[in-house]
Structures are given as structure tokens and as C-alpha cells.
Design a protein that fits this description.
heterodimer; A: alpha+beta; Jelly Rolls; Immunoglobulin-like; 3 domains; 5-stranded antiparallel beta sheet; disordered N terminus; B: alpha+beta; 4-stranded antiparallel beta sheet; 8 helices; 17% strand; elongated
């Protein structure tokens, strides 16, 4: 890729490093009406790869300069070439024809290890300068030192821009520049029940054009878990009201790219790196109310403890989907992570996915559903197993089943019949096989069988919202 | 006619061969050719787990079946990681796995499956976050035996807050696990130094952390250091004074940690402090202390 992000005041010259196969970046500066000072501009392009990795033969570099009005002279030269066969003389120079705004030059050279090209521009007007761009392609000989068929590499659209070593605010001066969102913006999930961030997108050009947006949203926990990348593309009209793009059930670090065809050239704006979509403080009463609602309306089983899920939420996350922490070097409200780098996330501390991390409705939905279906089923299986082994043992109450399921939800879930919340005990008699002779089978709290698991269940109950 | 038969025979042979090649090529990328139960767990022959390694799916299915056959619930068993390894240097592989019974990615159990004739035995240890089993298998001496260095929890699970852990060293034999940490004091001394260094670094960088996060993380490391100091008998009551401070703290996370320190020290004063915490105004602290006292009482009664 070309080096981008050129529009910085401090940058004197711009070095474009060609590391890919195609150039596609087009930067230009100074829209009409934006004050630019005349002066000489120097830019350089560096090729650090050859046409093909093993090619060392001759090649032609054709460059067509599309220069702005007022750019009266232009010099292209190759320098820094160490290969003795490479032509190092000035490639082309002279006045540009302002009416055509095109200029071309070429060079034969044997491909050196690194070829640097320098473009010198004498811009006498400045204030009207729109852009200086170049389309070039690199042709190369198929057979070294022999005249034969020239092939054109897929570097067919080399487009580059010039950075001016001049003072001023250059951020608004691109032929295509992103007005919104801005670098380091932190839109929050503040709408649609705190699950949606509304991000404005707007670009500025000389004349209104259709702008193609390409955004990349990345998220991973601090430990790199649940890593997701979401890309989206959409179009908008430049110089118009911002287009609002809704980021729903997602967040993280956003890279924004914009491109448009301007004066026949595909033009890319300097990307915005980065915008951060962050979380919002969600009222605990709202969370509690949702948890109660989800639990009592999930399935057909009558829930003994409607508030039970509020206890899990409190135990797991202090009922918080987001917390202030540092991620991507930025201290903001990020999804609440387990301390091991985020193997668990959000209110119910579920395994991380984009939605569970960023959408508290989904996090709670998944957690409650998981408890009231899967964990409940497992609790019933254990109950049946124990009852089968103990003739006459009554069924558990729904509240007791909740306790069994709570142990299964926690980190100390055990896969042993004697390590569940309840076990059976022959009270007042002697257990002979399945029979409690002279007494009755009773459920007892299995304090010593799985103390950590029981402690989890009991503390969850103690933390319920009353 | 005979010529025709010969042609058909060779055609069939070629077809069979090509089918076999295709099947074999596809098959080896997903599942091993030999069912896991029929693998030769002895030595490193062609049908040994090292030469015909089973896939993770196969191991999980096998584990679920084994769990069911032992009266456990197969569907509760999620495999986190596995390794076939000769644990006791007798030339026979054991299957060592970390498993998650919560289905919420808490890889909090380590299971060793051994094969004896055609019977499989299962031994299990509690653990804390053993995502990768290879992290806990170690050569600690030159005996050829492998040891399991299992992290186990020292503090209560507090959701998105740190859990203090300490490594316990086990040796697996055909009779089961034996805790052998006392034979490796140098391991623990080294571990103690690492913990101290880590805590000092954390304390130094605490300025960049929020105060509560820093306090909690430091308290976890302190618990770990004190446990090692008690284990090595450097100080039999290491952490007691700190636990008294934590007991008085406004921070329920520290009071919760105090419970576990008192539980571990277990002397009369500690039991008294547990009874104080059983009356804590925070019901989660109170119930936790009460449960701990109950476990102590029942264990004392041998129940």
C-alpha cells in the first residue's frame, strides 16, 4: 500500500512506499477557496518491491501527471538507484500545459533493489491548485536483455499525491476529505435501548460526487478473545447532510475509508484511524427489570424466584455491561471483561461474541435463556438420577431446582452426582441399595460435596435485587 | 471372455484403490483412522495415539461416553484441551484433558483417563482456568515421570474480578493422584519470587490503573504469596494480619478474601473471625462465611 495519512503539517516531504501490487491512493490538497501558498513541493515515491520478486530485467515506468492549474513546472527524477544499469538522468521536466493538465514521461531501467522517484513541483499559484496526481504503470520485459513483448504489470493505476511543506490546516484540503466522523471520535451506544450508535458520515469535495464508504469495525477483548472484524460499505453524496450509519449491537475500533471518482480518477480520502464506538452506562433498575421479565417469561415453568437472574448479574458483573477501562489505548466504557483478558463478557459474563459484548439485551437474553433452559434441564437430569437411586425421594421444588441449576451455571459446576447442590440422605433409617430402611430419603444441602458451587448459588441469592 | 474379466478385475481394483485413496486422504484431515477406543495406548506403534492422533471431536465424544459410563453426565462435559502422554513412565499413554462442566468456558477440571486392558479409568482434579492442558504438564525432575501443576482457586469467584490461585503439584499413578508439592520446595520458592516481582510491578503501575482495580489485583497476588509462605512453612500464619485488615475493610471483595484466608489457616482465631464475618451486613459475605463455618463443622465431624 501507499503511505497514507499525508495531510499533516509537520510532514515536509511525503514518501510513498510501494509494498503492494497496485497503487490506489490519491491525495491532493487545496480546494478552491482554501488558501494555499505557492511554492516548491517535493515528494518522493519509493519502490521497495520489483514487478515480480525475482525480476531483474529492464522496465519502463510511465507516469502521467494530472496537474492542477497553476502548476507550471514539474520534474520527475529517479534517485537512490544503486544498480549501475539504471538510468539516473532526469526523466522529464518542463512546463505543463495547463489546458490539458496532463504530462507523461518514461524511463528504461534495470530494476534495482530499491528505486526512488522524486517529483518536484513548482506551483506558482497555489490557491487554485486542486491536485497533483499521477497515473502510471510499470511495464517490464519478459526476457532480460532481449527485445520482446512488453507486459504491463498490474500496477496500472499509480496515483499519488503531494504533501506541501507549507503551514496551514491541511486536513480540510484534500480533493476528497472526510468531514465526519473525526479521528478519535467516541460515539456511544446511546440509542435504541443503549444498543445502537449513530455515526454521521460526511465527505467534502470540490463538486458534489457520490462517495463510497468502506468501514472496518474491529473488536477483541483485552486478551484478544472473541476477535471480530465487521466491514460495511455504503454510499453517500459529498457536501451534503451527513449520512447516519447505525452501528447496532456492535462496537470497538472503527477505520473509515472513503473514495470517489473525481475528474475521472479514483480518489481516496485519507482514512480516519480511528473512531471508537463505546458503551454507555445502563441503569441498573432497567437491567433488573429486563432480567426479571426475561426469566419469568422464559419457558412454561413457573419461576420460584422471579428475581433470581438479578443475583447472577450482580455476582457476575455487578450488573454492568460496560466499565471504564483501557482498550486500544483509550480509557472509555468498554464491555466488562473477566480478569483473564475477557474469556467472559458483559452482565451475565458469557463467552464473548460481538453481540454479547456490545448488546446488553442479547447478553441478558442469552444468559437467562441458557440458565432457564440448559442449566434447568441439567438440574432435572441430576434430580432424576438421584431420585432413581433413592426410592421414595420426593421431587425437588422449583426453588430447589433453581439452586441445582445455579451450581451448574457457576464456575464450580461438577459432573458428579454427589457434587450438586442437593444430595439424598436416608434420615432415621439405613440405606440399603435404593431403599431407606426404617427411615425416609430426604434432600439435604450438600455443603461438603461442592462447597464452592454451593457458595456460588447462595451468594447469588443473597445478591438478588429485592 | 477371460480377457474381459481380467479387464473388469483391474478396473474394479483401480476404482477401489482410487476410492480408498480419496477416502483416506479426506479422512485423515478430520478423524483418525483408528477409533480412539481401539488405539494402542502402549508404546509408539502405528496405532498409538502419537502416530494416529485422534481429533478433538473424537476425544470429546469418547470422554462423554466414558463420563456416562461412570454415572456422570456426558452432555455436561465440554473438552477444552487434551494430550496423550505417558504420565508415569511405564510406556503406556494416558489421556490428560482439561474440561469445562459449566459450558461457559470454565476449564476448571483436569481429568486423566487411563486404559487398563479394555477398561478405562477416570481420575479428576479441580482446577482453575486450565485452557490448555499442555501448560500444566511438566517434567520437574529426571525421573521420567510427568507432573501436573494445577492452578486451584484460593479466593471466591467474584465474577469479573480477579481470583487468587496457587499451583498444586500432583503425580499421577495407577492408584490415582498424589499431591507431591512438598517434594519441590524450590519450585514454590521460585514461584514466590515471581509473585513478589509481579506484585511490585503492579504496585508501581497502579497509578495508571483505577484504584479499585489495582487494590483487587494486588490483594489477589498477596493471597497467593501468603499461601505459598504458609505452604513452605516460612510463616504458618502468613496473611492472617492482612485478613484482619480486609475483614474491617469497606470493600466486600476484600472481606470475601478474608473468609478464604481464615478458612485456610483454620485456627481458633480464624474460626472466630469467620463467625464475625457470618454476621456481616453484606448478605453475600455473611452467607459465604456461614457456609465456610458449616463445612469446617461437618468436616470436623467427619461428614
Amino acid at each position: 500500500m501507499l503511505g497514507v495519512g499525508l495531510v499533516t503539517q509537520a510532514q515536509a516531504d511525503t514518501t510513498y512506499t510501494y509494498t503492494g501490487k497496485a497503487f490506489d491512493v490519491h491525495d491532493s490538497f487545496c480546494l478552491p477557496g482554501v488558501s494555499c501558498q505557492p511554492g516548491n513541493i517535493t515528494a518522493a515515491i519509493t519502490f521497495d518491491k520489483r514487478v515480480t520478486p525475482d525480476y531483474t530485467g529492464p522496465a519502463i515506468f510511465d507516469v502521467g501527471i494530472h496537474a492542477a492549474l497553476g502548476i507550471v513546472s514539474l520534474t520527475v527524477s529517479a534517485f537512490g538507484i544503486t544498480d549501475t544499469h539504471i538510468v539516473t538522468d532526469t526523466l522529464c521536466h518542463g512546463a505543463l500545459d495547463p489546458s490539458s493538465c496532463t504530462y507523461s514521461c518514461g524511463v528504461n531501467f534495470k530494476n534495482g533493489k530499491i528505486v526512488d522517484w522524486q517529483i518536484l513541483v513548482n506551483d506558482l499559484v497555489g490557491s487554485n491548485a486542486i491536485d497533483l496526481s499521477s497515473h502510471g504503470h510499470l511495464s517490464y520485459h519478459t526476457d532480460e536483455d532481449k527485445v520482446g513483448v512488453w507486459q504491463t504489470s498490474d500496477i496500472s493505476t499509480l496515483v499519488f499525491g503531494i504533501n506541501r511543506n507549507l503551514p496551514g490546516d491541511w486536513t480540510g484540503g484534500d480533493a476528497l476529505s472526510i468531514v465526519a466522523p473525526k479521528k478519535d471520535d467516541t460515539p456511544a451506544l446511546s440509542t435504541n435501548n443503549f444498543t445502537q450508535a449513530d455515526v454521521p458520515f460526511n465527505a467534502r469535495t470540490d463538486k458534489p460526487v457520490s462517495v463510497q464508504w468502506d468501514t472496518k469495525l474491529e473488536y477483541a477483548t483485552s486478551g484478544g478473545k472473541g476477535s471480530v472484524t465487521q466491514q460495511s460499505t455504503f454510499t453517500s453524496q459529498s457536501n451534503n447532510n451527513p449520512t447516519i450509519n447505525n452501528y447496532i449491537s456492535c462496537g470497538g475500533r472503527l477505520t473509515v475509508n472513503a473514495s470517489a471518482t473525481i475528474n475521472g480518477y479514483l480518489t481516496n480520502a485519507s482514512p480516519i484511524k480511528y473512531v471508537y464506538i463505546v458503551g454507555t452506562k445502563i441503569n441498573k433498575n432497567l437491567i433488573a427489570s429486563r432480567l426479571i421479565n426475561l426469566y419469568t417469561n422464559n419457558g412454561t415453568t413457573a419461576r420460584a424466584t422471579p428475581h433470581l437472574m438479578t443475583g447472577i448479574a450482580q455476582k457476575e458483573s455487578s450488573s454492568a455491561q460496560f466499565e471504564t477501562r483501557t482498550l486500544y489505548g483509550l480509557s472509555k466504557l468498554w464491555p466488562k471483561e473477566s480478569p483473564d483478558g475477557g474469556s467472559h463478557i458483559g452482565i451475565m459474563q458469557m463467552e464473548p461474541t460481538m453481540k454479547r459484548a456490545w448488546d446488553w439485551l442479547i447478553n441478558t437474553q442469552d444468559g437467562v435463556s441458557w440458565f432457564s433452559k440448559e442449566k434447568w434441564q441439567i438440574a432435572l437430569l441430576w434430580e432424576n438420577k438421584i431420585r432413581k437411586a433413592c426410592t421414595g425421594l420426593p421431587p425437588l421444588t422449583n426453588e430447589q431446582r433453581e439452586n441445582m441449576a445455579l451450581v451448574c451455571y457457576g464456575p464450580d459446576a461438577k459432573n458428579d452426582v454427589h457434587q450438586q447442590y442437593y444430595d439424598a440422605k436416608c434420615v432415621g433409617g439405613t440405606a440399603i441399595d435404593k431403599v431407606c430402611k426404617g427411615g425416609t430419603w430426604r434432600w439435604i444441602k450438600n455443603v461438603t460435596g461442592n462447597p464452592r458451587g454451593i457458595n456460588y448459588a447462595d451468594t447469588v441469592r443473597s445478591l438478588m435485587v429485592k | 471372455m477371460i480377457r474381459l474379466r481380467i479387464v473388469f478385475f483391474f478396473l474394479a481394483l483401480i476404482l477401489a484403490q482410487s476410492w480408498q485413496n480419496t477416502y483416506g486422504a479426506c479422512d485423515t484431515t478430520s478423524e483418525s483412522m483408528v477409533p480412539l477406543e481401539q488405539l494402542d495406548w502402549v508404546g509408539d506403534g502405528v496405532n498409538s495415539p502419537s502416530k494416529s492422533p485422534p481429533s478433538k471431536n473424537e476425544v470429546e465424544m469418547f470422554l462423554k461416553e466414558q463420563m456416562e459410563s461412570k454415572g456422570k453426565l456426558g452432555l455436561m462435559t465440554s473438552l477444552c484441551s487434551f494430550q496423550f502422554i505417558d504420565m508415569n513412565n511405564d510406556g503406556v499413554h494416558e489421556l490428560v484433558v482439561s474440561v469445562d462442566y459449566s459450558d461457559r468456558h470454565f476449564c476448571n477440571a483436569v481429568v486423566v483417563v487411563s486404559k487398563n486392558d479394555n477398561h478405562f479409568n477416570i481420575e479428576e482434579l479441580s482446577a482453575w482456568h486450565v485452557d490448555d492442558i499442555t501448560d500444566v504438564i511438566a517434567n520437574l525432575d529426571n525421573s521420567g515421570h510427568k507432573y501436573l501443576i494445577i492452578p486451584q482457586d484460593l479466593s471466591n469467584y467474584e465474577g469479573a474480578h480477579c481470583v487468587a490461585t496457587w499451583p498444586r503439584i500432583y503425580q499421577w499413578t495407577k492408584d490415582g493422584f498424589a499431591e507431591v508439592g512438598y517434594n519441590f520446595p524450590s519450585f514454590y520458592k521460585k514461584h514466590l519470587e515471581i509473585l513478589k516481582k509481579r506484585r511490585r510491578q503492579l504496585e508501581m503501575t497502579s497509578a495508571s490503573l483505577s484504584r479499585s482495580a489495582s487494590t483487587e489485583d494486588v490483594s489477589c497476588l498477596l493471597m497467593e504469596e501468603d499461601k505459598i509462605a504458609r505452604f513452605l512453612k516460612i510463616s504458618p500464619n502468613a496473611g492472617f494480619t492482612k485478613a484482619i485488615d480486609w475483614m474491617m475493610s469497606n470493600n466486600p471483595l476484600l472481606r470475601s478474601k478474608a473468609i478464604r484466608v481464615f478458612e485456610d489457616i483454620g485456627d481458633q482465631e480464624s474460626l472466630y473471625n469467620l463467625s464475625v464475618l457470618a454476621g456481616d451486613s453484606d448478605p453475600s459475605i455473611a452467607i459465604s462465611a456461614k457456609n465456610t463455618l458449616e463445612v469446617k463443622r461437618l468436616n470436623k465431624l467427619g461428614k
